[in-house]
Design a protein that fits this description.
four-stranded antiparallel sheet; 62% helix; mainly alpha; 724 residues; 8 strands; 3 domains; two-stranded antiparallel sheet; 26 helices
Length: 724
């Protein structure tokens, strides 16, 4: 171990400031003058096995020593299966040594090079740190995308081909989807919103809504142009010509109110009739769909816009970008795509390009890989084969073999007059009666504080030790008099830098770092740390990574719950208002809302059942569920409002529902299959969080479809009985 430490420290490019290990502590006990790694190696080599065993046995009660050894350490036999060595690096000013959300760390290159030194050093070593974690985090994201993106693209493309069954319409849909995504990313650039992991869900959302809009536009247009459910297709009516080339016979055409039949009657030549029918069919379908699209867009914007009230910047940005992206999708698929479709079909009518006939009826799974990758991943050929991942296995090894792993700590920051004679005694009392999540030694919590620095310095410096003894009135090893003088001497000694880690320069604040059990949950550690802090006679605040992460989790949950309530409330008001204005039937807004509530409830229940955590990424799924739920149910409710006639009897109600589900169900089914499989393929991702997100999005789409086609008709029957 010491030779490995020396090999690392000798390389200036590794920016090493300090190394620490159990071997270093043993060497220093053997030779207190051994201050360099070379001296410590000599001290170990010159000592006999009996001397080393005696020192190790004496150190068995030293928490600073035993914390570096595995849990099977025996002071009697002076043995342990594993040990930890710590290396500190100097990080350039302005940079954080930890891994950020983008998976970047300035220590990646340094620790990767240390791993190569380990390969050339005798002994079995595992190099681990934030730099290694960062490298694998980046690698797993790229490997996941390399697996998921081609699979998703193939699935989406396959279902789009099935839905459109026309290469030209497929091209139009893909172009519109790309435009919606590009416009949204362009807005992010103009608004200065940086791309983050949370915004990964935005393209998925736009694809989900865009695919649905596109299929509805094309299918409804074809329904108007070619006919459906026994209606006489327009193309057949065009063929009902009397042979003079001047148009259909009077018997073949019955002009409607500005619809396609009127267009046929106005036109002359067959080519003119075809182009006029194309425009008229799109006018009719556009007039009907724009209302449904507007309802979907309005409620979805309200649903995602509710996230703008979040206290977390990333979730707030998600809500804003999602809302703007949905507006862009509405404009592109509601205005641009129909116009482009008309332009394309009129050109096709003048050429011999093929046409498509389509049946539109209803008849037609925390950012790290697992320790053991699934077989379908390891069996992939290059370039899809994933890299080698060690972080998860290393973390599991540390948690299994050591009582407290690298990051299993919680900090309590104490503010008050630390020169007061009782200050250090007050800090030490916090170690008494340790809670369950804290590591216990001799019935006291294991902790690092300025007290430990004072004790360590007193052992090495006789003069300082004498000063401490003179001011320890109760002989418990903790000074309780002239603390200001002791602090001054300590800060001026070689242990000054270590003391500053636990005590502020003005002696008004102190840190106590408690070790926590490796299997303790964040919530348990936070609750226990808060209880310990509350026992302090001075102002004490629990902090540290665990506490901060728990606070973030609480904020995420509170923000998501608040946003969900706001979204549902705003959606309900908007639906009631818009159906009242556009259809004269405000109560249909409540019919539209019921499947949405059922979808959100089913999705939340699924998360609970499968134990999927509620984090920053999965928290957005409930908002997406509202948007998708509106998307599916609005199309059915709006179509039902067109087919339903006031005062109709039960038979007429059933006929209206039958035409609604048959006419709109096919498009909804195609949209559901395309979006759910295209996003569900994320479950194949190596990163669990991406897999969970993809699974939840796919389920949200599937639940939205099921509730729309199964619950909406039932709610409509109840509505008919109450209102109709």
């Amino acid at each position: 171990m010491l030779r490995f430490q020396r090999a690392i420290a000798e390389r200036e490019s590794l920016r090493v400031t300090d190394t620490r290990s159990a071997a270093s502590i043993v060497a220093t006990r053997l030779d207190p003058e051994a201050t360099t790694l070379d001296d410590r190696i000599d001290a170990i080599e010159d000592a006999s096995p009996a001397e080393i065993d005696r020192i190790v046995g004496d150190l068995g009660s030293n928490p600073g020593f035993t914390s570096l050894l595995s849990t099977d350490f025996s002071a009697t036999s002076a043995s342990a299966d594993a040990t930890i060595g710590l290396v500190s690096h100097e990080v350039p000013a302005g940079l954080s040594a930890s891994t950020g959300t983008g998976g970047e760390s300035p220590l990646t290159d340094i620790q990767t090079r240390i791993a190569t030194i380990e390969e050339r050093t005798s002994g079995e070593f595992i190099v681990f740190g934030s730099g290694i974690l960062s490298a694998e985090f980046t690698s797993v994201i790229l490997d996941s995308l390399l697996i998921v993106v081609p699979a998703a693209a193939l699935l989406i493309l396959g279902f789009l081909i099935f839905a459109y069954r026309d290469p030209f319409d497929l091209a139009l849909g893909v172009v519109a989807l790309l435009m919606a995504i590009v416009w949204t990313f362009g807005f992010m650039g103009l608004a200065g919103i940086a791309f983050s992991q949370l915004l990964v869900s935005i393209p998925v959302l736009l694809l989900a809504v865009g695919i649905d809009f596109g299929i509805h536009v094309v299918n409804r247009y074809r329904e108007e142009r070619y006919g459906v459910d026994g209606d006489t297709p327009i193309r057949d009516r065009l063929a009902a010509d009397d042979g003079d080339g001047e148009g259909p016979t009077a018997d073949a055409v019955t002009p409607d109110e500005g619809g396609v039949d009127a267009a046929i009657a106005r036109a002359g030549r067959a080519e003119d009739r075809t182009e006029e029918v194309i425009r008229a069919a799109m006018r009719v379908s556009g007039r009907q769909l724009l209302v449904a699209f507007f309802i979907v867009t309005g409620t979805t914007v309200l649903g995602f816009g509710a996230n703008a009230t979040s206290d977390l910047g990333p979730i707030r940005n998600f809500g804003i970008v999602a809302a703007i992206g949905i507006i862009f999708t509405f404009l592109i698929f509601g205005v641009f795509l129909p116009a482009l479709k008309v332009w394309l079909d009129t050109r096709r009518a003048r050429t011999s390009l093929p046409r498509a006939g389509v049946d539109t009826t209803f008849s037609q799974e925390d950012f790290l890989p697992p320790e053991d990758l699934p077989g379908y991943v390891t069996g992939l050929p290059e370039p899809f084969a994933p890299g080698t991942y060690t972080v998860t296995g290393t973390l599991n090894y540390l948690e299994d073999r050591f009582q407290s792993a690298q990051d299993n700590q919680v900090v309590i920051y104490v503010e008050g007059p630390m020169r007061r004679n009782t200050a250090l005694e007050s800090l030490d009392r916090l170690r008494q009666n340790p809670p369950e999540s804290f590591v216990v030694e001799d019935r006291r919590a294991r902790a690092d504080s300025v007290i430990g620095v004072i004790e360590s310095r007193a052992e090495r410096d006789p003069a300082f030790g004498a000063l401490v003894d003179r001011n320890d009135r109760d002989d418990d090893g903790i000074p309780d008099d002239n603390l200001g003088t002791i602090y001054d001497r300590l800060f001026a000694s070689p242990a000054g830098d270590q003391a500053r880690r636990f005590l502020t320069e003005d002696y008004r604040g102190a840190r106590i770092v408690f070790s926590t059990e490796s299997d303790a949950t964040q919530s348990a550690v936070t609750a226990d740390a808060t209880a310990v802090a509350d026992r302090s006679r001075m102002t004490a605040t629990p902090t540290g990574q665990t506490v901060v992460f728990q606070a973030v989790s609480d904020v995420i949950f509170a923000s998501a719950f608040r946003s969900l309530l706001i979204a549902l409330g705003a959606t309900a008001v908007f639906l009631v208002f818009i159906y009242g204005v556009l259809e004269g039937r405000a109560s249909l807004g409540l019919v539209n809302l019921v499947p949405i509530v059922a979808t959100v409830a089913a999705l939340a229940g699924t998360m609970r059942y499968f134990g999927i955590p509620f984090n920053a990424l999965t928290a957005t799924v409930l908002s997406i569920a509202i948007g998708l739920g509106v998307d599916y149910s609005a199309h059915l409710v709006h179509r039902f409002s067109e087919e339903y006639e006031s005062g109709t009897d039960r038979a007429g109600l059933y006929d209206a529902l039958d035409r609604t589900v048959r006419g709109t169900g096919g498009a909804l089914l195609g949209s559901m299959l395309t979006t759910s499989t295209g996003t569900g393929v994320l479950a194949l991702a190596i990163t669990p969080i991406l897999g969970q997100f993809g699974l939840l999005i796919a389920l949200a789409v599937f639940y939205s479809f099921l509730t729309a086609v199964l619950i909406t008709p039932s709610v409509a029957v109840v509505w008919h009985g109450v209102v109709g």
